[in-house]
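Ticket #4471: complex job returned nothing on first submit. Input attached below:
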Amino acid sequence: MAKMPVSITVNGQRYEREVDPRLLLSDFIRHEIGLTGTHVGCENGACGVCAVLINGKTGLSCLAFAVQCDGDEIETIESLGTPSDLHPIQEAFWENHGLQCGFCTPAMVLTAHELLSRNASPSRAEIIEAIGGNLCRCTGYQTIVDSIEQAAEQMRAGKEEAA
Amino acid sequence: MTTTMDPRIPPSRQREKPGQDLKWIGKGIRRVEDPRLLTGRGKYVDDVVLPNSLHAAALGSPHAHARIKSIDVSKARALPGVAAVLTGEDVAKSTGPLPCFSNPPTEQRCVAIDRVRHVGEPVAIVAAESRYVAEDALALIEVEYEELPVVMDAAEAVHATGDAVIHPERGETNVAIHRVFEFGDVDDDFAAADAVIKRKLRWPRSGAQPMETCGATAVFDEGEGKFTIHVNSSMYNYVGWLIAVTLGVPVHKLNLVPTLAGGSFGSKLFIHKVPVIAAVLARECGRPVKYLEDRIDNMTACDHHGSDRIYDCELALDADRRMTSMKCTVIDDYGAYFQFGIGHHGNALSQITGPYQIGSVKVDITAVFTNKCQQGAYRGFGSEVSNYVMERMVDAACAELDLDPVAFRKTNFIQPDQFPYFIPTGNLYDSGNYPAVLDKALDLLDYDGWRQKQKDALAEGRYIGIGLATCQERSVFSSTEFWSLNDEAGFALTSSPEGVSIKIDPTGNAVVSLQAPFWGNSPETMATMVLAEKLTIDPANISITYADTDHGVSGTGPGGSRYTVMLAGAIVGAVDTIKDKLFKIAGHLMEADTADLELRDGAVGLKGVPGKEMTIADLAMQAHFFRLSFPDEPGFDTGLDATTTYDHPLTTMPSEDRKDLGIYYPIMGHMCHMPVVEVDIKTGQVKFLDYVAVHDCGTMVNPKTLAGHIRGGTAQGIGTALYEEYKYDANGQLQNASFMDYLVPTAHEIPANMRIGHVETPSPFTEYGIKGGGEGGRMGAPPALAAAIEDALKPLGVKADFLPLTPAKLRGLIREAEAS
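Support reply: We reran it on our side without changes. The output follows.
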């Protein structure tokens, strides 16, 4: 199988690679460029664990080929906070015990990030709708909804303070 | 507190009494695990990347039961990028059967030889330059099968003969074991009964299905003759050495290195097939090999399906409506292998009579082989099923005898002044306060208010139901449960320890080495809190590591809701050792008697003399670097560390005749679950209106993480009760081997605001009085939901004797009820 050139920007950095046309975006992110914060749970688009932001919208990286994302801008969990400087969403997940094993967490946080970027004050029903495609086997979801609700509040407060 | 002098109860070894004024234990602090997990820095098994690695894939059998007539791997081997293709026979040249804890064992191979016994069982394995190429190679392997009769129905499996016998080497039957256990005078109690309630109940096969599958990266160092395997398994410092036996190397020539696990819920209790496949290929190829199950591998062949039981039950009551005796006949479908024997029933027998005073019990257990993936562990390990059965029988008694489910439970509860309490099987309940838990739940829910709303709703044609389950939450298993029910005990192990190593560095910081992995629980937070409490140091000065088998000591790891209790025991022991040394050093330097010293706020101080103290940091520097400042006695030798192993706090041997199973699961928690649901009788859909769960896990270490276990376990219990079931067809094909079809609850399927309450009845036997709490939610939600649905549909006369109560099945029950 002839390799194909791709140019994908991940977390602001452009990566030029020659890849198999069948290489999944999830494998490109994890194995070609070594960002292992994106996890893989089912590889058939049913669990949502591999979600990343593709041009600002959440997409399942196990359902896209890397070559389809040529020229795209991808954001992964590594683009948000760091352990010593958490993003407000991550801070809220920490405070509310919105994670246990942490395997679905990067996708949950990114999904929340996308939601809050288009809706600064989501209702609980809207939060549940947004994470409806992300499975979590540990938490029972309630504390995830709490986390996102609190993150929205804090981010609104932060913006008001800045204004 | 135990004031009893009952000779059957060993004395308590509790050092740290409950009820102390505590600084950290009991506080809902944020987890220390989280910052790296939240930012994608957690290292799970697929994040182990070694240079020059190969990637493996396994060819699963398409047949449920067949002889392998021939395998042609030549085309697969010829594919560019393929390093090795091995059949079962190839593997068997160097590698033995997988570990098995039943007696006699069933022979299971990591790659089948001659015969396949379930769909998805590996028949060949490949290592290649990428997972993609490895999967290409699978498609080129040609296998010729001769199909054998497929055994799928557990009740029919009992009668199978000839080619339908799945393990002929064990005899001409698919009955893996049949045993009848009787505790107390069951016949007399039934003869004297005023009423006998009978029900047939069905518990479906579901499974843990963590978001991360099982995986391993193996390296074989030919120079050292030694394997190193990175794997997301637990119990590696307990029984991991059995992997070396399988691989045919001395035990010290295998190092198992734990990784974070992306959830387990029991299903990563002891992973054997996956690391052995990776190791066999690594030895063959002389390169590191990674093998990671995909989701289909995990669903069809993870070796950890949950219980799958058919019950016939009878409950005897006297004229005062007290339950006196219970009889159960149970057929349990174990699938194709039998790795833990009927340990799951040992687990169930530890709390078989629930929170009630029932004087006798008889259980007739038939474990059968069928052509399904074998059973393993799933949150509850079989005792969640007996909780469901007990509560369903209680509800049946209330329904048939027109009794109030709350009052009936209160009458039959073991009362707070009766502890410690022996149940008929010989297991001991250490402590409890069941009326307090029930009262708190009734109050939290506003039970009377919901009963009124239920009436009002019915008048509008809406069907609301209130469920009630009062269940046991046994914790801290003793290993006797794994063999005490066997015909012959085999290897009758009696140790299930937990070790810990604590090193205080020269600046006074602590490094704690755990002997078991993180698998979604909070071991780092627990260890940090208990150590900070006991040594009076700041949590910020503690770091946690995970010991591999080369550097570890004995440790059984999480499972059976044991880990927090056992880890606390080990840490208390280790700190006592470190404290002794700190006191010796401080006593010498401060010219004080060690009896006059105390730990306070990170320092050793003279009792009653504020300001007269030395910090642990100063003492640690002394301990590490200034040997000649101290007397020439061994107690002053350089260093400040301790390695301690904590054994089970309270366990005894079973009797020879098994009329008494001994004390083996005594740290007894309790819970009350009360869901309120509305059933749409036109669609069979169940909607949550409310949910209250009150748990008693003894002294709470961290209320925040305990509530997390309760909510998460409840979500899994909701899955078991309403949605989840591995659906095999008559040919043994698993029809729902993906998350598209195997329905794990999403955020839409759980209660919007589940409310948690806690009661704390400390254990008199564990450090600080802690009890386990890892499994509770899933052990209470299924019977509570069955009760709620039955209550909602009471006006239609619907009986819910099986799970899962999916919309389609509920519609079937409603249709039947309406027709009759």
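The mean pLDDT of chain A is 97. Closing as resolved unless it happens again.
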